[in-house]
Amino acid sequence: MRRQVIEKAEAAIPQCHCGEVNRLLKENSTYRSSKNSLVGQRRHTLPASEFWCLTPEDAIGVFEIEREAFISVSGDCPLHLDEIRHFLNLCPELSLGLFEEGQLVAFIIGSLWDQERLSQDALTLHKPHGTIVHIHVLAVHCTFRQQGKGSILMWRYLQYLCSLPCVRRAALMCEDFLIPFYMKCGFKVLGPCEITVGSLNFIEMNCAIRAHAFVRRNSGC
Fold first, then answer.
1. CB neighbour burial string for 137-150, b if at least 16 within 10 angstroms, e if fewer
2. Which candidate in 126, 136, 141, 212 is catalytic?
3. pTM above 0.85?
4. Domain N-acetyltransferase, which positions (predicted)?
5. Which of 12-21, 122-131, 158-167, 203-212 has the lowest mean pLDDT?
6. Does the annotation mark 111 as catalytic?
7. What's the CA gap between 105 and 183, in Å, rounded?
8. Which of 111, 112, 158, 160 is catalytic?
């Protein structure tokens, strides 16, 4: 059923759906090198560490990290392999990977959403004219956990979203035990999420992108 929804969604979205976001990325000098935009390009940030948007070719590596991170905890993955490919084809510019010495160690995958709260459709749809980035998943490779990689990646991702004028806020759903982590990243609790996956219930959280930019400007970072 989820695969059928994805196929219908891809057929309904025009080919130019990412054009405006790509244009903004290319015009933004903070998130590009001297010759290339962030989309599809590596950008050196720290010794041996790089952040750049993912591509469909990264899908298998992404899924391996995600599967190891989530299956043992919740019994399922936020995104299956076909869904990862789906979003990395439709909106790769809303993903971000942390690579160390060429190895993917952590990643975020997002898509645009056009309603105030997340609904079941948000699991599979990308709304090109939306102003909310739905963060589907953040995962860190098992070897690199407990090192602050997830926090670093989320901070960088939110700063990246600040460069996109069309993005108003970021939203996600999580289990109760993850609420403190996301609150430290700047998210606020909205309440129970209407989305359920099997027997799992979630809390919906969001982060105002402009407010996040203000916090950074006044943090001395």
1. bbbbbeebeeeebb
2. 136
3. no
4. 49-210
5. 12-21
6. yes
7. 22
8. 111
- Rg of the chain over CA atoms, in angstroms? 16
- 25 catalytic residue (yes or no): no
Judge contact between 51 and 65, C-beta under 8 A.
Answer: no
DSSP letter, residue 15: T
| Residue 122, both tokens | 């948000």
Bridging pattern class, strands 95-100 and 103-113: antiparallel
In this predicted structure, what is the pLDDT of residue 194? 95
- Reported as a single tens digit per residue, the pLDDT across 101-121 is 889 999 999 999 999 999 999
Q: Which of 37, 157, 182, 212 is catalytic?
A: 182
Cβ-based neighbours of 36, under 8 Å, separated by 6 or more: none
Query: Which candidate in 96, 112, 118, 125 is catalytic?
Result: 125
Tell me if residue 138 is catalytic.
yes
User: What tokens does 137 get?
Assistant: 């998943």
Confidence category of residue 212, pLDDT binned at 50, 70, 90: low
Burial category of 56 from C-beta neighbours within 10 Å (exposed 0-12, middle 13-18, buried 19 and up): middle
Q: Which of 138, 161, 164, 172 is catalytic?
A: 138
